[in-house]
Amino acid sequence: MIAGRYLRSRRRDSFISVIAGFSFVGIMLGVATLVIVMAVMNGFRSELLGKILGINGHMLVQPIDQPLTDYDAVASRLQGVSGVVAAIPFVEGQALVSGPAGNLGALVRGLYEADLKRLPLVAGNIRQGTLDGFDTAGGLAIGTRMAQQLGLQVGDNITVISPRGAVTPMGVTPRTKSYPVTAIFEIGMSEYDGTIAFMTLPEAQGFFRMDGKATGVEVYTDDPDKVGDYKAAVEEGAGRPAFVSDWRQRNMTFFSALEVERNVMFLILTLIVLVAALNIISGLTMLVKDKGRDIAILRTMGATRGSVMRVFVITGASIGVIGTLAGFLLGLVVCLNIESIRQFISWLTSTQLFDPTLYFLSRMPAEMDQGETIMVLVMALVLSLLATLYPAWRAARLDPVEALRYE
């Protein structure tokens, strides 16, 4: 009851109440910012990981010493390994693609139609055309961004140019061939939508002068986080000398940078909560100074030092608890509507707030992690509680005689 009265604003204590209000707002904004930033960082990692692994596979089996001519047999053996969901042979090469609106460098991949349909990121996101009859159509499936930049629609011809052409007395001449666009997909990651094109495996083998050979076999497992456990079985299941690498090795630098950025952002934003907690210390210290006579009267009426200390601990902790809960609710609302908020701010400022060419993704993701959110809330509550201890201890140590000497 006493702590509640100290929290309520009165004319004489208005300045102290203003400090308490700033402390509340600071903790609320600090917690909300931490929750939102951590959710967005988790969303980035999850979306990027899902996009990268949806196209590149969890493990890559490449030949050693001898070309991969028995790719169908290797894929069949790998398909039978425990934990392996799919094993897809492919041919890969870099080429220049050309359309009515310009030219682009592209990564061309050759896959069987059945294997291409096993990639849900591609098969489930066809915007124009179809993958049915892909093996016999002799065309290309390209991303929406590539189609826009080259000015292509389904049915238009796209010219593919490879530097590995025919050898003539005048040197090597680039190989050029025109293909119809049979399908346009949208993965949602600008890097892939603008640079990857799919063609049939036999056609890719002929175009890149890899007759009867494959670049490698991509292996998809039931749990990408357990690729280390499957690696030995995959190496054995290949049945031939092969080099096996997983997605963590191929993308180590990228995901390590994301992890470092995430940890640094957490430490920096924690300072916001710490500053708000220091406001609680200053506000309670001024409250103790102002309430010295009240504390002395309570002590002379029989209140113990522990009772006085509890009054001020409850006063400061109330600010921390209410501010933390309000910050969590604010962060939750923002995370659930992050894309709508982004679009509104972009409309309001007439700027592109989240450029997909810079951030790879076409939408802003947010994914709240239960453990991280609880850690943020506990940290804010602990800092708020610790901030109350010194002013409360000073109040409990106040001598009633000294406080009432000049009253």
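The above is record 1. Record 2 follows with the same two-line structure.
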Amino acid sequence: MLKPALQLRLGQQLTMTPQLQQAIRLLQLPVLELQAQIREALESNVMLEAEDESGSLETGESALEPQYESTYESPAPSAEASASNEHSEHTEHTDNERAESAEAEQPLDIVEDQDWSDTPVTGQSDTPWSGDDDHSQDFSDARGETLQEHLTWQLEMSRLNEREMRIGAAIIDAINDDGYVIEPLDEIARNLQPELVVATAEVERVLTHVQAMDPAGVGARSVSECIELQLRQLDPDTPGRDTALAIAAGYLDQVAEQQYALLRRQLRVTEEELENALVLVRACQPRPGSSVHSVPAEYIVPDVFVRRTERGWAVDINPASLPRIRVNQSYAGLIGRSADHAMLRTQLQEARWLIRSLEIRNETLLKVARCIVQRQSAFLENGDEYMQPMILKDVAEAVQMHESTISRVTTNKYMHTHRGVFEFRYFFSSHVAASDGTEMSSTAIRAKIRKLVAAEEPDKPLSDSRIAEILSREGVLVARRTVAKYREALGIPPSSERKRVSVR
């Protein structure tokens, strides 16, 4: 028979305090979202105030000083020495994403009583065909004219009558961002009814006026017509113009397949005439609308700056990424113990929590960035081919934090170096075993593949098997399938498509 009883148990469990939740949330926010969060806090909390550039911050819990600096002192070691020192520290894991699932379960490594006073697409482009200390940010006019607005302006400046203007406006509405008419002309005519009854022939006649507008080739209904419109704007005496028009009318497939010998026989032209014609065709823009329709540039604000100094690589938190805030001491000194000041005391506590959370974020970000720079110093010195294999666990063990914390820190955070702006995640990659028992980063292998393809003979491109053989002779043991996977990731077509047949 069951009966009630009292038992005493000792145990430990994690309690997600509001301060811890706030620190975790701020840690994973990118710079722009964090700035918006701080602006919102400044507007809603009277205990917070932003400090202007000329002001001096007070010390202690009432101030946040984000201008941290730490120098990793390294006498610019050679790439070989740097690589050999790092090889023994890497595990056999091949994907740094395995820690993502632990983010919701694992805590942020925070010691609340710790002293915090001691407290960059895009990596480089991977396309195969292709250090200063200035912390200033560049901004451009975000206002951009759309293709429809550009064409409408030209339509209004034309000498068409009111009826033709309405037909032209309907045609412009049917043009996509690439500059092509995507609706049949009879459907455009039906869309004008019942306000305006027009025939398809009349729509086609107005279309010729639209096709004469800038940019050249706009208003075409196919790639062939687009190229033909651009070629017809050339001087009739241009060498190869007539042959180029013939190619645009019905031989673009042969050009795409590089069947130049067959093309020369079909057109009955000489090698020189065909070569001149191909130069004209290749100079045409297959997407004329792209020259007008442009997406406003999205600027990346780096979280840290990495620069070379006489003592090694210096890592600095970007002081322009965060506004400097502090507790308003005038209001804080007026708070008494009465119940009337309960809301002000709550806002004061929230202000202190926010400042402490920002200090935690900066300290953690700096610690992780410094570890990455230390491990990837060979890359900073020599480029992609010297990237060292590194996963989240390596950094987590070095800075004594949990992998989920490292995952938060490295997501949407950017590092400005003399080689460009890289996301923190760019420096993490799987590894491949080398013939001498060491390991090589997959990023370094992709850089080697890109270099081999760029240096290959145009008429004798390297196959995946051949690239694997060359890498094996260099001590990198990769299978043909691995080479194919890396090649596709770089956007490099297979050797059969890269082969260039000379015009004969």
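The two ends are 101 Å apart (CA to CA).
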